[in-house]
Specification:
By secondary structure, this protein is an alpha+beta fold. It has 9 helices and 18 strands. It is 22% helix and 29% strand.
Length: 374
């Protein structure tokens, strides 16, 4: 068998010691289980890959052997774990708060580098937290493992030099900034409903604010449970007929719109917009659950135009095209040209410099969809 991805990434501890005997893999319509005792070779092969391994579905509500609908906890991709630890720039004497214990693997890696007394990790799911405690102790480490809401951090062990989230957020909880000492850093995956997302590394200032750039790599982590959005339907029902038009974006430009870094920029400018891509039928579907608005664009590979349907008080496809046009006009900036400033009451995304705040919807250049003749 090839060398496991954790070893190739230079990580000191293999994740096979933390991944449970029951894991979940994608299947038609959801997730199916693989059992370590029944199929050890397949289990080992999945765990050795440089990919996330789903360790829980449906918040633990689906029993092994049944079809799971939604992944709710995982062991992160080893190369991403290594990249996040590198981004944290850890040094002896630092104290770290980890948000999202999961299997306990990252907490063990942190303990191995800094010592158990320097590490606090928070897990919202009691069953996962208990299982992680046992695995971490079996590996020979004793960090503080807290069962609780990661959005609240853990004040008793503050201040921390680093807050490291292994779950994604759309809003950085200010508790993380308050519990990080001035000069410390908050490192967290951050994204929108449209694009999830990029790694933010925010330097904490003495006035309770934090700011910093995004890393250049695109990544996707499970959302902090306190910030998970409700599932979206494929198409919402509403009174009246949808508005139909034809978009002037060629298929190559549509691809840019829905994949990073273009999608990251669109997500910044088009709030509360969920994106679902039906890869089989090449359909892009956008939804705003709050207003009930939706849009659908059916793409034909190589075509210069594509039919669009939109419904509700927002014209989501038009908004997305407007945002995409702004991004193109800025020279198609990559993720690392964007940054984030977090204060007590707001977050501001910016391009190149904190003073250059990304414009809101009305400020984006308007390029209307092309209506069909007649």
């Amino acid at each position: 068998m090839d060398q496991p991805a954790a070893s190739r990434a230079g990580l000191s501890i293999g994740r096979e010691h933390f991944v449970p005997d029951i894991i979940w893999v994608p299947a038609s319509g959801g997730y199916r289980t693989i059992c370590r005792t029944r199929d050890p070779l397949r289990w080992q092969a999945v765990v050795a890959l440089d990919d996330a391994v789903v360790t829980q579905v449906d918040d633990g509500g689906t029993r092994p052997g049944r079809l799971g609908r939604r992944s709710s906890s995982s062991s992160s991709q080893p190369s991403l774990v290594a990249a996040m630890l590198k981004a944290a720039r850890l040094a002896p004497g630092m104290r770290v708060l980890e948000i999202g214990t999961g299997t306990g693997w990252t907490a063990a890696l942190l303990s191995d580098r800094l010592g158990s007394a320097a590490v606090t990790t928070v897990e919202v799911d009691p069953d996962l937290a208990e299982r992680a405690r046992a695995a971490i102790q079996l590996a020979g480490f004793e960090p503080t493992v807290v069962t609780g809401d990661g959005a609240a951090g853990y004040p008793p062990n503050a201040p921390y030099d680093r807050v490291l989230a292994t779950c994604s957020v759309s809003r950085v909880p200010h508790a993380w900034i308050r519990q990080c000492r001035p000069g410390g850093q908050v490192i967290t995956p951050w994204g929108t409903e449209f694009s999830n997302g990029a790694l933010a590394r925010l330097a904490v200032a003495g006035d309770g604010t934090a700011a910093g750039r995004f890393d250049s790599m695109s990544l996707s982590f499970m959302r902090l449970r306190a910030q998970r959005a409700a599932p979206c339907p494929w198409d919402a029902d509403g009174p009246g007929r949808p508005q139909t038009s034809v978009t002037g974006l060629a298929s190559e430009r549509v691809y840019e719109l829905v994949t990073p870094p273009g999608a990251f920029a669109v997500g910044l400018l088009v709030p509360d917009c969920h994106k679902i891509i039906d890869e089989d039928d090449l359909v892009v579907r956008l939804h705003d659950p709050g207003s009930g608005s939706w849009a659908r664009c059916a793409v034909t590979a190589g075509a210069a135009t594509h039919p669009v349907a939109q419904h509700g008080p927002r014209r989501l496809w038009d908004e997305a095209v407007h945002a995409f046009t702004w991004w193109v006009g800025q020279g198609r900036p990559g993720l690392s040209r964007f940054g984030l400033t977090v204060t007590t009451d707001r977050e501001l995304a910016w391009l190149d410099d904190p003073a250059n705040v990304v414009p809101g919807g009305p400020a984006v250049p308007v390029v209307p969809a092309v209506r069909p003749p007649g």
